[in-house]
Design a protein that fits this description.
Helix content is 64%, strand content 5%. It is mainly alpha-helical and 464 residues long. A 3-stranded mixed beta sheet has the order 1-3-2. A hairpin with a 2-residue loop joins strand 2 and strand 3. The relative contact order is 0.07. The structure holds zinc ion (ZN). The site of zinc ion has 4 residues, from helix 4 and helix 5.
Length: 464
Amino acid sequence: MRKTIALAGLLHLAGALFSGARAGDDALVDPAYEGKYDDATIRPFLETAARIAPASLRCARRALGLPDTVSPAPKIRICDLAPLKPGRYKGPHAKTVAEAGPEGLELVIVFHAESLVNGSGDFEKRLLHEMVHASMRLSLGDDKYKRCPRWLREGIALAVAGQGPSRVRYEFSITLDAGALLQGLDEIHGPKDYAEDFLAVDFLLRRGGDRALPRLLRLLREGVPPPRAVERTARVDPGRFETSFRSAVLPALETSAASERSRFLPPFRLFQRQEYAQALEGFETFVKGPPEAEGILAGSLEGKALYYRAKSLFQLGRIEEALAGFATVRRDHACTCGLADDASFFEGECLLRSKRLEPARSAFRRFVRDHPHSNFAALGWHKLGLCHYLGGEYQEALELCQGVVEAFPKARIAENAHYDAANALRALGKKEEALALFRRFLETYPGSRFRGLAKAHIEALEKQ
Ligand SMILES: [Zn+2]
């Protein structure tokens, strides 16, 4: 894919502005964080936000061709993710909301503490991303802003913040399919669509040249309908933007994808066939790697290869090396592959497998704290309970297992958690409560593989 002159210009601007950020200019940040993290964990993020927010706002506004300042300026806040249905959606990293303030409605950029702490995004880039949203919204007004299609709003924010290429690589690492990156610029918008949003805006900016973004924004402000404003900025015939974009971008994506896939798939197929020793060899070769493939997708599968390398080691019983491998994926690849939460979970598994209960407990506690919406969340809570159970802390085990049954009733692990909660009651000597819970277990899970064990416990308890 050709290098983007327009974007290189914007990124250069971002770098210059960040390096000139003034310390102490902290009026934009709301320091009143209340949540599950302690002060020492959150304070560095509040301080960083205070330090870079004014420059971030200026940078966003200059990229859009707007005056440097705006009043009231968007505020920044950090809060914990609200509980969502587990496993459905990992939750946005940040959002911009309108709130009533002393000077009327003001915009507040809310960062989710978990994604800051677990490192699943570059804070400076994400702040700039949200500043772009806020600045566009303030410049166009709510009505015209909301009339802009999501792909355009998100694509502009990703492009200005310099998040685009990594987002494209991230999405490709999940599906391994270049075509799946381009699902169509329609109004149904999900987390998978950001890659395409960026690619479309990147195309738009390349076609439109240096001042494309300010010109687009001016047209939108004047009330030109967004599709027309896009076509005029990109200098394409009416109704031709999406077809032009696809035919310009897809061939290069396909070529880049094919070379990435050809390195990754052979060891991955061995892993899927449970041939772990050969898979490990393949992943070792991958990460030591031949020179990177060409194009925008080059290097996109490194995090994924490291994760499966660690998993191969885990399957081969090489627990120490696996542990180190999972820690690397969690620390260094949280924003480049979608497997940082899985890696965090498996760190706990490695420690539990080698019977180091105390560190395993810390690892699982960190996992459930930092990844509340992971597909592994229910399992993580149950493992935490198991660590306490194995350490003889039956009351904690009981509460954690009951928590799993209540919070994740439909998860497969709820069955184990129910059984283990009854066992913890038995270990605590609470005979009647244990009996009641074992009986309820047999009613709830009549076909359970723990049925025989539960019945044996009931008989033993009844004889006591
Ligand atoms: Zn956004």
